[in-house]
Amino acid sequence: MKIPDSVRIGGVEYKVFDNQPSLNDGESLLYGQIDYRESTIRLSDLCEGHQMKCITLLHEILHGIRNHAGLEIENEEDVVDMFARGLYQVLQDNGRRLFDLKE
Predict the structure, then answer these.
(1) What's the Cα-to-Cα distance from 64 to each of 30, 39, 48, 60, 96, rounded to whole Å?
(2) Where do the H-state alpha helices sit in 5-75?
(3) DSSP 8-state code for residue 2
(4) C-alpha count within 13 angstroms, C-beta hemisphere, residue 74
(5) CA gap 83, 62 in Å, rounded
(6) What is the rounded CA–CA span in Å between residue 35 and residue 20?
(7) What's the CA gap between 98 and 74, in Å, rounded?
(8) Cα separation of 61 and 58, whole Å?
(9) Helix intervals (H) in the chain
(10) What is each CA distance from 61 to 23, 28, 74, 89, 103, in whole angstroms?
(11) What is the four-CA torsion angle of 87, 91, 94, 98, rounded to 10 degrees?
């Protein structure tokens, strides 16, 4: 998986910014952050390694999907994190089966 310059979620183009310093939500440091008003996803320089960065991007994309669907999820962070990690594993192990990817 690669980190794209942008990703479309719910018909909205989100610019992806990589290696961003000091992301926080006012309470704690974050690995990633999605901003719905600015249509941006920021990935922190705290992400150690490519796999963690990919999982963080999927995590923020899932938040975006939830937001655009207008869905409320109890324990959202835990649920989104579980799906992001699971989706990353499935895509890594089966990408060529799911998409028309060249060897």
Answers:
(1) 16, 10, 23, 6, 25
(2) 50-69
(3) -
(4) 0
(5) 8
(6) 14
(7) 30
(8) 5
(9) 50-69, 76-98
(10) 17, 20, 18, 16, 26
(11) 100
C-alpha 8/C-alpha 73 separation (Å) is 22
- Say if CB 28 and CB 19 are below 8 A apart: no
* Six-digit token string for 16: 């992806």
Answer for the pair 62, 80: CB distance below 8 angstroms, yes or no.
Answer: yes
Tens digit of each residue's pLDDT, the chain (103 residues): 899 999 999 999 999 999 998 888 888 889 999 999 999 999 999 888 999 999 999 999 999 999 999 999 999 999 999 999 999 999 999 977 887 766 6
H or E stretch covering 15: strand 12-20
**Which residue type is seen at 28?**
S
The CA R_g of the chain, rounded to the nearest whole Å, is 14
Q: What is the largest CA-CA distance in the chain?
A: 44
